[in-house]
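User: Study the fold:
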Amino acid sequence: MNPTVHSLVLSAVDWDEVCPWLLFRKCLRLAFSFRLLLLTTLHLILVSLWLAAAFGWFTSSRTVEDLLKDYSCITAYVPHTQSAFPSGTHEIRQGTQGAISTQLSAGEIPAGNVLSEEKTGDDLRLEMLTVLEMDAPAERTQSETVLESPHPSENKTASVPSTNIVQPQEDPDASIQGSQTPALSVSAPNASAAKPYSMGQIVNQICASVYAGISTLLLWVVSARLTALQLTRGFRSSFHHELKFAIAQLGSSLTAFFWIALGTFLLALPLLVCRLFPANVMVWLMPAALIYAVFYFFFLLGTGLGSFFIPSVLATENSDAFDALSRSCAYALQKPLKLVLYLLAAILFGGLGLCAIVFLVVLIEHLCLTLTGTLPLGGSSLALYAFSWSVSAWLLLYGFSALQGIYLLLRRDVDAVELENVWLSEPQGVPAPQLPKLEEAAKETA
């Protein structure tokens, strides 16, 4: 076949109709938006820090660097502090340290004038853990001291905070005297007892949880709206404009999730009440309970899968909470095979994008350390682990975009609605021409 004819045939084929799962390549491209990725990364770090501080994660020697390091998706690939210095710089530092140690041994430099090398946070934490492990056996032996005395007068001299009677042990001196005195077990009071939460801590935890949920929901609706406009009409809207749209839809989103939680609780009450009946009554109620349990399972399945499409319905249709709830549950249950196929396609494209974003993040970090030779923020690896959180932000963005693409494909398969059908807040297209006023037209003709 002629190459020109072959290219014409390929261009004439509507590949979105033949292979609808190719729609996820646009979702993949949208997830690499720099501005949206930066805002999502900052959102994740801010929410994680507030939740960790509210629920007491920063205890003992834990720091912000530990939080960013422990919950990063690519902790094993983040460069360490030792790699921040090139080979030449590292050799210079070793030579300088060798010269200082030589002069110190010869007595040319007083020991007090030698500055110790700065230690990283990991070195300090390891030293602290070593000291705590060395002090733990001594504290344990001091706190759990057993005072045994055959004479009651000696027991009175010991001031003990708590006294527990232990089984008496045989003593040769006491057996000769024919009397045994019970020993006293002395234990120090438990200083590590959990303190009750104050009202301020409870309010802080509630505020942190509410902020995390509402801000993530707003980001979800904004991402779904941007994806819907890009996939259906090819429009590129601004984040600020779609954030206003998401705030306007916040009430419907919260109402839809509230009805799901309320329905799940109310429908679970009959199953909980059945456990209050005696065994002879439960035998007769068992068939009805099994039928009701099957119904409850499908309800949980529909609402559980449909809840992932509620922001997509609101971003595409601009509907209320009940319409969003009914559409999301119906689309999730009526085409289960198509849903599984689209999920597999989204996971395939997501795996390719994940490999790309991990490679880019690790490459940028290594290049920064190799070219500059120093770590930002005073030599700590805080900035490196914070930058590695962009991988988690990308996964979140791609998940929101992929769910929007799956919703559009399921809507076309179930209701036969074209992909281009999306609600727009303002009329798009060529504006209508404005006709001149009659007075101005009369003056021009006169």
In short: The chain has a mean pLDDT of 76. The radius of gyration is 34 Å. The longest strand covers residues 144-147. Residues 21-77+199-415 form one domain.
